[in-house]
Amino acid sequence: MKKIFVLVLAILTLTNFVSAQTKNQTGKTPIIDLPLGYQITKVASGLTYATSMTFDNQGNMYVLEAGGQFLEEPPPPRILRVNPNGTLTEIVNLAAVSNNQVQDSVVGLVWFNGDFYFTHRTPNRDGAVSRWRPGGAVQLLISGFIDSQAEHQLNDIKVGPDNRIYFTSGPATNSGVVGIDLAPFVSRSPGLRSTPCQNIILTGVNFETPDFRTPDPSDLTRTGAFVPFGTATTPGQQIPGSNRCGSAIFSFDPANPSAALQVYAWGFRNIIGLAWNRNQGQPGFGNLYAAVNGYDTRGSRPIIDEADATYRVQQNTWYGYPDFSAALEPFTALRPDDPTQQRFDSPDSLQAPQFIGNRMVGKNLRFVIDHTASGLTPPDRNLVTGLHEWNSSPSLLDVAPTSWGPLAGQIFVAEWGDLAPPTTPFRDKPTGSQVVRIDPATRQVIPFVRNRRRGPASAQGALGLGLERPFDVRFGPDGAMYIVDYGVARINMARAAENQYPADFPPQTGAIWRVTRTSNVAAPAK
Q1: In the chain, what is the straight-line distance between the N-terminal and C-terminal CA atoms, in Å?
Q2: Which region among 85-94, 254-263, 277-286 has the lowest average model confidence (pLDDT)?
Q3: CB of 53 within 8 A of CB of 512?
Q4: Contacts (Cβ under 8 Å, ≥6 apart) of 1
Q5: pTM for this predicted structure
Q6: Which structural domain, as residue segments, surrounds residue 331?
Q7: 263, β-bridge pairs
């Protein structure tokens, strides 16, 4: 009976989708599918590295361009106003008004009390938060997040129900250890490392890899967790915590940002977006949700994770990074179908030999933090609100307002998509490039806006007619859903030979889409 129910549910889910019939500015029909009762239109196009949007008190829409070093003449980070007719007006070139102190990637943007707050890197690649009031100069509020010197930066920034400002910080490294996958970043910032938010005690496991800092390819070095490349650790070694750590959510009082900075929760792998369901009649401030990218199969400590995740955030809680999976399961867990094998282990050919002291201890996954000695409690799996497909890269998110009827209170998450094979050699089909919804009651992750075929539209010969890399989803003052599409991002392995990240990011391929209800829609199948 259960199998029959699942089959019927799958049929209902599939037949509930129809091709989008609203035509875009070119007059051609998009290749996008939506549930019955909804339509999509393209609001604006030609954006370069679009990351997030915000609205002021008058309902004006603003979108952020991240800036970047991908071209010979890199585009600057900018805030643009999206006019009602779809044209774009530059409000500010953030590099110009900050004497180039605002550098890529500029990711999170929020308007509050007449000011724009945003996250970015500084010239030394540290993460930072700044404020800009139209007509003035940029004011640096908080800086010194050294994890941003690697591949993950500060991300979302939002105003909380308590009028404090919240933002997220990704960690340096894939899984706690600086490896050869971060060689371009180490060459620029030799001291980069993951930083914890409280004092932790290490197990002392070190990973032996080629030392890319020397001209001799046979040179080897050993690197531990939460230390710079080429630094070995010892059992019982303490790593001091920092209030400018990676893998965390922070909050601050905008009247006194640096002094009022607080860690709200930490231990997320690569946390991107934040959203509250405060408008849904919840007691107090309602629930805070966070979208997080799971681990990659790369570096000195590669992980075969099984999911990405959206979490319910509990204050003063550790979420397991770098010793627990996206589903908050320990990396020492065994496979249910074969208890002789570790569940998240990678093939030996991809793993670095591990040492504790001078004793080789094999290649199996083991904890890098002594949790008991560090006073860390394993994370509660009930905090998982929804599990996304692995490598789908859940990014920014929002909660549907009451005007969305049967979908009110559900969480909508933009999935940016995968970057295989650099992030994993095991993916044989694309994932992400869509917006999904999560019913907090059932924890199901269900596609809502997607291309008819999986993957970016440009990979299907339909550039501009479908989704590329959705990064932000936001419900506007008019009740419509808006999707910020970053634009084309495609793998180019030839760039690795130039010591660059192996991907191309063509400019002016980003867009904003608008999704509205066309009729009263029935409650979706659960």
Answers
A1: 17
A2: 277-286
A3: yes
A4: none
A5: 0.92
A6: 2-375+382-517
A7: 250
